[in-house]
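Re-run with default settings, no changes from the original entry. Doing this only to confirm the output is reproducible before filing.
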Amino acid sequence: MVLIKVHSLHTSQDGQIQYPSPNDQLMVSNRPAENISDIFPKMVLNQIYGKLKQDDRYSGILTAKDGDQFLVNVVADNSGNLNWEFTIPENRVGSDLFNKIPDPAAVCDQQGLIIHCNEAFNRDIRNQSAGQIFFDYLPDPAHQSRIKEFLHSTDPAGSSFEVNVREGNDHHVVSYYVRIRRIQPGLFILTLINLAPFKQIQLELQNNEKKTRILLETAAQGILLTNLYGSITLVNHKIEQQFGYSREELLEKPVEILIPEALRYAHERHRQRFVESPKAREMGKGLEITGRRKDGSIFPIEVSLSAVNLLDGLSILTFVTDITERKKLETRILQMEKLEAIGQLAGGIAHDFNNVLAGIIGMSELGLRNLKDGDSPEEYLKMIINKANGAAGLVRKLLTFSRQQVLTIRELNLSRIVQENQELLQRYLGESIELSATVETDLPYIKADPTAIDQIITNLCINARDAMPDGGKLVIETASHPLPLALAAKNEVSTGLPYVRLSVIDYGIGMNDEIAGHMFEPFFTTKDIGQGTGLGLSIVYGLVKQHEGLIEVESRIGEGTRIDVYFPVCNQRSHPAGEEKEMPLPGGRETLLVVEDEPDLLNSYQDLLNGLGYKVISAADGLKALQILQEEIHSIEMIISDVVMPKMGGLELKLIAGQMRPGIPFLLISGFADKVEPGHPFLQKPFRLESLAVKIRQMLEY
């Protein structure tokens, strides 16, 4: 009799089904069964249990409660539990039990002859398949050979692999997954699983993966994925281009490898805060930070972060944009805006400069007339100097705006500067403004440029005056004050450092948030045309930043405005505090070479230095100075030279002089600070002759 294995299960000694689960539908039962007694009559089972007590194995044909007959093999394992195996006679293969198998199934012999098959096989493969050779359904000879090899082997285990099968009368070839099991010597059962649905799913997954890869690799932005611990798990080609690393060099590395070393700790803290409270940044509104390439060079980047949930947990998706060109473009646009505003600026500067020139000319004429009458022109000469200083101040404002002014840093007492400027400020403000100053007398010193601090205070006060067109009260305060927490957090600086605060408070018209957000932008002004250039507050902002300071603005419409400027305190005073006393100009007996292409300036320098005891040798350009050096190289003890001159400039002369006589003191003077590298001794024109005398003495005695 041909027997076909249908099902097997595992029970305890009392018949309780342990495997498969009681909720699984058993092929030997039309409903879920919890005990073997739900399938067979109890009397039949008692016979089996009785025989198992005498032997650990039982075989016999049993009739189930629903009338189906089975050949049952029962084996007791070491623990006494029972393993049940159910088979059916060959004349029952086509019954409902065999047809319960949902996939095509067939029984064949060693030559591949189909003995029995279920309804699914007839439906999906071919009707009236019994009596056919299974290999006739396989168009691929390699698949035929593989099955034949198994059918003729003595391997007791089964085999599974993919084959191509002809379906239906049209012989359409479909991929199936075939499972072959030996049910008794020379007899096999084959089960076919249609792979078409799985192939379709696999194709869709591959297409989706390919589309994702295309989008990832052709994206204009750099894209990287990191896990919760900051390790890089995915990068695209753009990241490789931006940072100079290969994909293999970045994977599994901490993301801080792409950040400059000095900023890595801060970036790690920012990343941890994002993981704790993820908040996606919209595209185009990313965070601007600094990136580091493999070669060590740094460049500005913009990053947008998003938290994404993957199968292995939360990850951070980062979009990276190189904004180097954008920053350059912004700088160019800003410069263009400056150029467009030159017309507006020129009118105001020309008006003020003409007033200065008119004063100089007028005072000079009066001085000449009085000189003829025998009166002393001293008072007129002082007024001419004051007017000239005013002209220098106008030029200084332009240089500050163009970022070409060099700061002369000194240790200053901010309270003293406010007190010294109070009378002058009152003149600027007019009689309608009541100015009061509340200063801290024992204020810590700051390192700053005195002229720059004057400009900051003056521009803030003038801006406050303009906010009170009908007059009002303006208050200046100085105090030793720690940074507000919000301001420190916004600028990512420590709150533990000591700062000095300068406050300018008006009770004028005030500003809304939108205007306050633009108030420090160049050429932004709410005044009528011709009443302001919009440079004042941008100069304030630039000077404060140059002094490593911070600005905070608080304003309300109708209530006024308060501007607080914070300057870092000096760590240590280099000289004792006290009032500076006017000292006589220092002189000496050294030989100086002075090089200047402007005759009037050269004469003034020569007269001053001769009067201070120096021996002065003059030259009108760099080539002439070079000839003098070759002749007097050992007698000349210091060189003072203009930077921009015909034939040979001061920078080239300095280089050659340093080769001819290493270490010779060399002072550069010019109206263009951008042509001089930081660290070189330098005086910016215009300067007072006293400044020149002090600088020369400092360099000679250093």
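The radius of gyration is 48 Å. Residues 528-534, 574-581 have pLDDT under 50 and may be disordered.
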